[in-house]
Amino acid sequence: MRIVFAGSPEIAVPSLEALIAEQIASGEIKVVGVLTNPDSRKGRKGPLEPTEVGAAATRLQDMLREKSLQSFLILKPEKLDASVRDQIANLKPDILVSFAYGKIFGPKFLSLFPKGGINIHPSLLPKYRGATPIPAAILNRDRETGITIQTLALQMDSGDILIQDHIELSGRETTESLSRWAAQRGAELLPPVLRGIAEGTIQSTPQDEAKATYCSIISKEDGWISWSASALEIDAKIRAYTPWPLCATKHAGQVLYILEAFPLCNPDTCTTRFFSKQEPPGTVLGIDKKAGILIQTGKGLLVVQRLQYATKKALDWVNFLNGAKQFIGSKLE
Q1: Tell me, what's a Pfam family for it (predicted)?
Q2: Taking the model in full, what pTM does it have?
């Protein structure tokens, strides 16, 4: 089966690696093209750098050549226009495999693949269709999430479900840690799904449109903390926005990132457990010597363990307080 793989960020790299491993092992799967976003600058004056998938594709090309195996074409188009479609058609692909590519596939593009396309999506579809399903599950404090391999359809993330896997959530996951799980699990599920498609043995299940929910694109501004929210909500936000855009507040006019924290206890009781009077949300109340810095929220206390001024390095709470003598008792904006 001749495959074009489309992906851009790090989460998609293990799936591409799994396809190349299958190609080397059996030859039944053959990657003929890799489609990824164009190279971009890291910073205003930095050099152009490939996407994580682009970098991995170059490395995998070299590995195939070292083994005297036929390599694949890497494409980094701005748009999936007629010239790109011609290049893809010349590869004579059978199927498109997509994981977080970042562009919509139109009907003309999908028509190039006789066996259609499949997409790896890190949620339990039809829940959380869209670009940010992992942060959405954390923000909503879900008890479980998962990963879905679906057929590609013209409507976003609406294709038939080929396989799903669930993971129970402990409430301490971050987008970074949950993305690592999704990356690895997607790579494990992909080869058997492709074999099932080739053999005609895999069954598909239509999604229940009545249960479809959607998640929106995240912006840097979403990371600002509202201290009037509950400790549970702020904790979920910090975890959902790690590693990007991170959660920020302001202290003495400086941007301060809250990198690691947790709600101390039941938000209905934990304020009175430590202090007889509830201070305004955002007040830095003091410390718990075994845990960290205690900050009043709209409902409950947040224990901060790791933080960072925007212009300085990240520090654990003890070392941070050594350099911020006036922090206790202050009010965060």
Answers
A1: Formyl_trans_C
A2: 0.93
